[in-house]
Prior knowledge:
By secondary structure, this protein is of the alpha/beta class. 41% of the residues lie in helices and 24% in strands. Strands 1, 2, 5, 6, 7, 8, 9 and 10 form an 8-stranded mixed β-sheet that branches. The protein has a two-stranded antiparallel ribbon with strand order 3-4. Helix 7 packs parallel to helix 8 (274-284).
Amino acid sequence: MQWHSAWAFLLLLLLPPLGWWLWRRSRTAALRFSDTRLLADDPPSWRVRSRGVLVAVRLICLGLLIVALARPRQGTALESIHTDAVAMEIVVDCSSSMAERMVYEGQVLNRLEVVQRVGAEFLLGNGDDLTGRTGDLIGLVQFARYADTVCPLVTNPQIVADFLRDTNIVQLRSEDGTAIGAGIQLAAARLQHAERELHERNARLLAAGGDEDVEPDLTIKSKVIVLLTDGQENVNQVDPLEAARMAADWGIRIYTIGIGSPQRGFFAPRGPDERLLKAIAQRTGGFYGLATDGDTLRRIYEQIDALEKSEIKSVQYMDYAERFGTWALAGLGVLLAEIIAGTTIWRKIP
């Protein structure tokens, strides 16, 4: 319990002298007699002897009203969190070449498995240099011959990590290929659409609130695509550089990561197209990195993690529930009881 106007308790100091004055006043006779010897043998009734009760009741009434004047209130601590988030699409190559072998922490896995494991560290944190992407809007796109949205933009990185873990290398030859341009185009469109929807939502909230000082709980600070591929564009549905130009026009940065060695492998006869990936990154303000194993991929993610940070602002405040009404009603109830008692049981004549 807190008191908004604690100074009101100083008025309690006036109650003792006021009570003494009221008690003295209550003893003043209503009728005056020239000779009181006639009443000497008539003892005072219990009503007369207990008339001081009215004084006590009035003091209780005033005490309750003074407490109400001090405005007792119950405070609840609340927290308002505003996130200026990074909106990020992770775009993963799931073509057959991602079955090529790659080293991760001393184990030999396929490239997609390494992407999944290090990606989970990036999303959730690894207790070391990667702290996790709490507060971000993150989505997942996979591509081979076609690009598909695997996970829409969400604020829970665990959901994205679960979807990433469940991605698989394409099995059908008709679905195999490396559509880098289509993957970029789909991811960029998703980011642009999310920003527009969020802007409209915040505008509606501000209009409904009618308070210019109200701050939306979520805004987009920057838009980012992290593209991971080990191949070269061979579908030609969408020109990767044209898709990159569109992304740049929408204010989207693209970080490109080449997976594996530039040298030939059994499943990847040509390796990642480093020239193309560098051009995409340069055109959009990102950078290109080559990941030959789990450690180098982790270091690339650490660079991205350092560059792209969400800003989370927390404002704590108290929500108060006023409790003075209970005390005021109690005081008025006692006052009403005093009035009734004073006009009935302890009625004074005249």
